[in-house]
Amino acid sequence: MAAVCQVTGAVPGFGHNISHSHRRTKRRFDPNIQKKTYFVPSLGRKVTLTLSAKGIKVIDARGIESVVADLQKRGVKI
Fold it and tell me: How confident is the model at residue 43, as a pLDDT?
């Protein structure tokens, strides 16, 4: 599963692990991605979204109807 949030667009960040001796090795900071299923009354069915923890909070604040409408405007297949 790709580490990308469908609502916020959060993607992995990249950086370095730095050891005690200051040797640097590449590392990846992944967003907290989870699959969530919501019932959307306007569509009359359940929708499964790949969301970050912040994306879940956005849906809680704005509502699933508003978020799904924005996703459809952007052309995301739901």
Answer: 94
Could you tell me the CATH number of the domain that includes residue 64? 2.30.170.40
Residues 6 or more apart whose CB falls under 8 angstroms from that of 69 comprise none
78 inside domain: no
Summarised one tens digit per residue, pLDDT across range 1-38 is 689 999 999 999 999 999 999 999 999 999 999 999 99
Residue 19 has a pLDDT of: 97
- Residue 48 lies inside a defined structural domain of this protein: yes
Answer yes or no: is 61 within a domain. yes
Q: Where are the beta strands (DSSP E) in 1-78?
A: 13-18, 24-29, 33-40, 45-52
